[in-house]
Amino acid sequence: MQYLILAGGFATRLWPLTEKRAKPLLPLAGKPVITHIVEKLPQDANIHVLTNAAYTESFRQWRLFLPKRDITIHTEHTRSDDEKLGALGAVAQWITAKTILEDLVLLTGDNYYGFAMKDFLQQYEQGVPLLAAYDIGNTEAAKQFGTVLLKADQKTIAAFEEKPTEPKTTLISTGCSIVPKAYLSELTAFAAEKPDNIGGLFTHFVEKDIPIHCFRFTEPWFDIGSFSAYLNATKMLVGDTTKIADTALVSDAECEHTVVVGERTRVRQSACDNVVIFDNCTIESCVLRDCVIDNNCTLRGIDLTGKMLREGTELIAPS
Amino acid sequence: MRHGHLIILWLLTDMILFIGLFVLAYFLRVGFIFSTDFPFDRFLTTTLLITPLWLSALISTRTFALMRRQTSIRNGLHIAFCAVIGTALFALTYYFLHGAFFSRLLLVQALLLTWGIIWMWHMLFSHVLHYVLRKTNTFPVLVVGVTRESMRLIDLLQKKKSPLKPVAILDGRGVKERDIHGVPVKGKLNKLEDVLQEDHITHLIQCSDLEQTINLLSACRNKGITYMNLPSLLGIVERDERVDRLEGQPVTIVSPKDKWWKWPFQ
Fold first, then answer.
1. Bridge partner list, A272
2. Where among B79, B111, B135 does a domain terminate?
3. Taking burial as the number of CB atoms within 10 A of a residue's CB, which of A2, A153, A273, B149 is the most buried?
4. Distance between CA A318 and CA A296 in Å, rounded?
5. Is B244 among the domain residues?
6. Residues with Cβ < 8 Å from B99, sequence gap 6 or more?
7. Do B219 and A310 touch (CB under 8 A)?
8. Cβ contacts of B232 within 8 Å, gap of 6 or more
């Protein structure tokens, strides 16, 4: 079995946090999103990360922090959003180029999966595609996602509905699936037609009467696609506490709800409420609420609410 | 030709023109002769002495600023104000150096000439300046946001042949349009750094994506780019705003509509 993590997106909605880093490399509760994924995979897993030319070097650097894992970085040769092959197109190209002849676990690199991967793998029946579906708990929330309708056996997928106005289920599809080796050719053929529709692959399987099993889970799951999703994921994982890196210094500060302070960051005489501060920042006499502050920022004497600050921002109010 | 060189040329021509107009006023009043009763050398020396002071007053009105519209009434009034200062300085200087001046009508003529002709010259020179700067693409502009306001702005800058020439557009959410009035839409904000560098952007005008103001400002500060935004970014679309100071602090003001004569006191 091969494990493929898709990390080729340019993450335009999370600008400026993704200005210089891929979305899977965004720190989430102290480590990159992709590290959370890798840590859940079996120790002996062959992990492949498929990214684009702009981020390849960043992923190579990231891999150095996980020396015991078998991780290979693959590059789709695109440098911007306009040149993108499409997620499925890139997978198909990789399958063909590497002559993959094994079952394939597909994972989107910007998702956080709270379930145990061994449970997911245990549910896999040889030769039957498997898709992880998160039980979001209420139909109102399900309206924002693609929902998964099950057959009477409560195991086999009957149909998918994309952002339904009246959801019939609270199960929503996620970016974790297994495509058996027998269907890799089907994947590449479908990718040739719809290279950017990775979710459509399983709809295509349903249309072709290929049975798909569903792995239901209720553990936390996040699609880190926007500023609010990123902040919510951090709140859920860190909880109502302050997580301060070993080399950070927080003094004379009022921290409420979730506050994450990165390496070598100094926070002084400030109030922080639901704030994520990355590395090497200086925050003095500030009031920050629902903010994400990227690396190397200097803020003095300002109040901010609901902001993402790009790397190197200097905001110094005159005293 | 660089903007700085053009400004120096503009200042020099203004000085020459100011002196020339005073000389013209002399000859119009005295006749085209060098009168011994009304000595020309004294007249010219006084004019030369006050010219730098007049020019300093003119500079302080920001009439030479890149974005100043020379045809505006406000600009005309600024030039008139400086013409009054120039004439007054002349009268005062002449009085101190040589006693009473020989002609009050000459002063009136000099005042009118240095107002009217200098204003016309400013309109003409600014036209040339805009043409040269636009042709040499001296001030490439990045427009952030595809909105009706930004489309109008691009159209306006093109029609008025502004020296600020839009060369690229980015939009935070992405749009279908490939270009707006011939200016290419180059993608979303993730391309900001590339566009700023590749297009040698000198000015950035933010028209939407209010939540990204700090980040756009940060990028501009890091790269020495001038940042501007449209009032519509703040929801001010009726063009009744003004930028003023409240106890020295800059503020954008939208006042309730009132009698026109109350405007100077609001």
1. A255, A288
2. B135
3. A2
4. 20
5. no
6. none
7. yes
8. B147, B149, B207
SS3 A30: coil
Contact across the interface for B215 and A82, Cβ inside 8 Å: no
Same-domain pairing of B118 and B178: no
Structure tokens, A52: 């684009």
Measure CA of the first residue to CA of the last residue in chain A; give whole Å.
Answer: 61
pLDDT score recorded for residue A82: 62
Q: Does A316 touch chain B (CB under 8 A)?
A: no
* Global pTM value: 0.81
How does pLDDT run across B230-264, given as a tens digit for each residue?
999 988 888 888 888 999 888 999 888 888 888 77
Task: Give the contacts of B223 (CB within 8 A, at least 6 positions apart).
Answer: B196, B201
Neighbours of B225 (CB within 10 A): 18
Residues B52 and B83 occupy one common structural domain: yes
Containing structural domain, residue B119: 3-135
One domain, residues B17 and B108: yes
Shortest CA distance to B3 belongs to which of B195, B231, B226, B210?
B226
Q: Which residue has the higher pLDDT, B82 or B38?
A: B82
Domains of chain A (ranges; CATH) run 2-229 (3.90.550.10), 239-316 (2.160.10.10)
Domain count of the fold of chain B: 2
The pLDDT score that the predictor gives to residue A76 is: 81
Residues 6+ apart with CB under 8 A from A304: A286, A287, A288, A289, A291, B214
User: Which residues in chain A touch residue B218, judged by CB atoms under 8 angstroms apart?
Assistant: 309-310, 312-315
Shortest alpha-carbon distance between residue A177 and chain B (Å): 29
Is residue B228 assigned to a domain?
yes
* Closest residue to B215, CB basis, from A10, A306, A310: A310
Q: From the candidates B218, B220, B221, which should be mutated to test the interface with A, based on the most A CB atoms within 10 A?
A: B218
- Whether A309 sits inside 8 A of B218 (CB atoms) is yes
Pick A313's closest partner by Cβ from B192, B211, B214: B214
